[in-house]
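#random but structural
TW: two for the price of one
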Amino acid sequence: APRGRLLCGPGLRRCAAGLLVTKCGLLRHRQAGGAAAGGAYWVDSQQKRYVPVKGDHVIGIVTAKAGDVFKLDVGGSEQASLSYLAFEGATKRNRPNVQVGDLIYGQFLVANKDMEPEMVCIDSSGRSSGMGIIGQDGFLFKVSLGLVRKLLAPKCEIIQELSQLYPFELVLGMNGRIWVKAKTVQQTLIIVNILEACEYMTAEQRKQALARLSGN
């Protein structure tokens, strides 16, 4: 059989004998691009506390400034660090205007059990790619990690149906945090309530709720 590069995601760890499962859940597999063998395997579980994973995009809350580094609450067991140089165009003279309490959307550059998690707001090309400080307005709330993964799936029906109801901005963090902003506070809260409820609703119940709202 052809051999390809195999990536181990959350819930799996390499050891001498092969792969070790570190948490219970459903084993998932994503095929590698093209005709290459391999791909990525991970365990999809209903864990409550977020565990940082390298490359994950998350929403953090700035809790402190410590010299050249910001400390962020990302919902894990310890805080993450973020350098002021980890923003697009940032230099020693041109520092980003980050204040305690600000919301930051970024990704993990370092995330393992032996080191403090480190975040950045730039990609490998030095571009922000939508990362950085999230606007002051809007509403931040928390959902289960399983629901966030469902919302982040390509062509997610929930997001498509909501976008037909009202125009809105949405930021999804793999750590279970969601930031949403619509034209009015009422529309924002309606979207928040639907997103929170859709974890326990069937597709048919969700469509009926949206139909009632669109009729108002």
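TW: number two ↓
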Amino acid sequence: MAVRRLSFRDVTALAPMVRVGTLPMRLLALDYGADVVYCEELIDIKMAQCQRIVNDVLETVDFVAPDERVMFRTCEREKDRVVFQMGTADADRALMVAQLVEKDVAAIDVNMGCPKEYSTKGGMGAALLSDPDKIEAILKKLVTGVSVPVTCKIRILPSLEETVSLVQRIEKTGVTAVAVHGRFKDERPRHPVHCDYIQAVAQAVSIPVIANGGSLDLVKNNSDIEKFRKATGASSVMLARAAMWNPSVFCSQGPLPVEKVMEEYVKYAIRYDNHAFNTKYCLCQMLRDKVESPLGKQVQAAQTNAEISEVYGLQKFYQEIQQEQQAKRAALQSSNQPDRPIMDGDVTTMAVKFERRDYPPQITPKMFLLEWSRKEKLEQPQYETVQRSQDRAFQSTVTVANKKYRSSLWEKSKKFAEQASAIVCLRVLGVPEGRIGEEDSGLVGKRKREGKLNSSSEEGRSKKLHVDILQEMETPEPIVRMNSVEQNPATPPKQAENLRDDV
């Protein structure tokens, strides 16, 4: 296949790091001068379940898991320089994931060096080093199956000869480059890096060799990067901890004051809706021994990106970004809603997604439809939900007054699918649906919106409404599992947390 080539010669790269290599850190590293950035290791089994979603609000491409967690987020800024690293022990599954992401990344990398149990117990990471046949099978499958360069990252083997032999075999698979972490499988960052092993590998193969593992001993500032390159004889250098502590190490004048670097990191975290716990983790890595300082304690106490923005005096920036994104959501919602419903047989359809954040905490469209039906002395709305096999998404049809309503878009849960169908019905009928900012229709009591009772005389009515709502929410509806359902377009689901503690 035709290959878009990312050069791995004479580059400095941000290494793949669990919980660190998310989008804000990658963009910051590029800002400071990194040539190539690797995402954190992402496990093939989880990525294979993801759906590719274009997020028009954040201007990103998101790979979203069935539970709506964003497993991988990228953007145009890094498209030509981000390397997607996966954890895999299966050639077919590796290819499936690589083909899922290849249009949005510059290269695919296979992790063959992680010694942690979460990786090795599945035969991934450093466990692959003892199975060169599997290494060869995975890399050959990827090289011939995707349109971007394929690389891998290894650790050194017990002997110099074994290490050189393995890398020579890897070169024959057609990979574009190989990164070598100069430590043995059982060694940790406190152990010295073995530059002689990396040098021997670099001399034995013709593809670029990327030296990794020098943060503790050799790389303290930007000028040390070239020293590490010369000490190993490698084509390029990859930095992990030195960049985690202060990504401005990539800057020719670096490293810069970490306080300024953290502010810039927080701005990216806010702009790209990074999960707050992930943001905190990265900030604490930059704080290092100052994590128990007054600033460190404020960071640890913060629970949201809004609170983190206050710690760094970025409240105005946070509000501006929130207003900008809300305006985009409103514009997109307006443009995506068709003026007229479309008939699909005897079902009235509209392209609608249920966005939980658009409704007050205790209010849903289903509640409004139920109350409206009772007010009109109609039978309770009936929901019939189906699930398609290829991605386990749901679609629901609601019947009200012998007429059927359905969203043409598929949802990630049965509950959301039912809410979407209720929205279609309410909009077609011209009935309020309970959205935030909508004029009070009186269908659902004011106390429900405010979360409290106005007087003791209301208590009996409140209990009745509570029971009615529970009945409406808990009425069992059949889920019909279908072997094949026609594919329908989908829009981005609500953003979910970006923190993963198992990759």
